[in-house]
Design a protein that fits this description.
The protein is mainly alpha-helical. The chain is built from four helices and no strands. It has one domain.
């Protein structure tokens, strides 16, 4: 049984980790906006704020999308769940990208091309990691899924 001091420590450490990772995300977004995106009005503080807005938007998109996937998964044949999962993941990826680009375009009042260049490297990395994840999932033994 955990005591109240341990629970408080876990909460404080969680808040510190979330803040540090959000600062790192804001710095990366700021560097990409100024460097690749050529967005002149990008500062660290508004990049950090945009990072939080994008994180909250992605959280809601993920909750909605995976909620829909779970409802569908419980109502279909077991053999089709992997294929539907991969297709749903691709749709989730596309919706996430265009949501991030739209929010960035509106937030910084930049062009769609500038918003795309700002998010280009994270999109490529996310795509590559997703492909690796799908390959590992497809090549693993059926015992795991």
């Amino acid at each position: 049984m955990m005591g109240s001091g341990e629970i408080a420590l876990i909460i404080v450490l969680s808040i510190i980790v979330i803040l540090v990772t959000s600062v790192i995300g804001g710095l990366i977004l700021w560097g990409l906006a100024r460097g690749l995106g050529k967005i002149e009005n990008a500062t660290f503080l508004n990049s950090w704020g945009l990072y939080w807005i994008l994180s909250i938007a992605q959280t809601f998109i993920g909750l909605i999308f995976y909620g829909i996937f779970i409802v569908i998964a419980f109502n279909i044949n077991y053999n089709d769940i992997i294929a539907i999962g991969i297709v749903a993941y691709i749709f989730y990826y596309i919706i996430s990208i265009f949501t991030a680009l739209g929010i960035t375009k509106g937030f910084w009042k930049c062009t769609f091309g500038q918003a795309t260049m700002t998010h280009l490297i994270p999109m490529i990395l996310y795509f590559l990691l997703s492909v690796i994840q799908i390959i590992v999932l497809a090549s693993s033994n059926s015992y795991y899924y």
